């Protein structure tokens, strides 16, 4: 039986079953102690939590890294899904965890650069409340429509003269920001319909509940290849190798460059030697052919940079996004 990428994501979700925890099976000398003990780090399991449901990009990236860390560090690395509030619930739990290296997480740039523009100051999660271990990869967004719609470009949407209902991956996400900026700049009357992730947004699009949707390329590539949906624009700075024939929003005259970037984090105050061990193990994982093939299979662009470079990237994103929202008078806050 041939499995598509979407099928693989469904299998991951099914494999999670009733519990959202996936534990890598101990083998070849891998330690499976439930918590750290005496001796050089690590002496027990390292839990990796995910602020999203099983099967999405962040979940799949976390699982791929967990397998590599387990191999390199010689301990079991369980993955625990804790979805909610675009990753904020998981982030706040990690923030209060013991800073000993036994709880770490892959986090999304949007949680720190876009979500604060859509929620109150009390609800916002701050980057300074975590220790950065290193950068991972970029996931690009694409605006898609059903093939039957006849739409091929952003200009085609404008020509309809109607209110365009657009699906996104949620409030305070890059998908929402990219869509809102595009429709505002294009002068297209539109209505935001947020979903909890790319999969439900894609399902809504295929079910004609929305006219178009902005989701991550990895979540839509199989439907694009199957010619069930058509890509109208990508929101990267340049065309991407996974969809080389699809023009960017900038090429179509709109100053919209938005992507999802992910990086590895630990609770504030985690010892430097522990972070170094985790970071070195991650780098070795990234260098394997298996992980490189994983990136290509899921349309991910590696940006495996230092913690200082991660912070610089996020600071630039936050400044740019806020300025654009202010410029165009856009609010990302959930409608009440």
UniProtKB/TrEMBL annotation:
Signal peptide extent: 1-25
PANTHER family according to UniProt: BLR1237 PROTEIN, TRICARBOXYLATE-BINDING PROTEIN
Keyword Signal annotated: yes
Family: Belongs to the UPF0065 (bug) family.
Name by which UniProt lists this protein: Tripartite-type tricarboxylate transporter receptor subunit TctC
Upper taxonomic lineage: Bacteria, Bacillati, Actinomycetota, Actinomycetes, Propionibacteriales
Keywords: Receptor, Signal
Organism: Kribbella antiqua
InterPro entries cross-referenced by the UniProt entry: BUG, Bug_dom1
SUPFAM superfamilies noted in UniProt: Periplasmic binding protein-like II
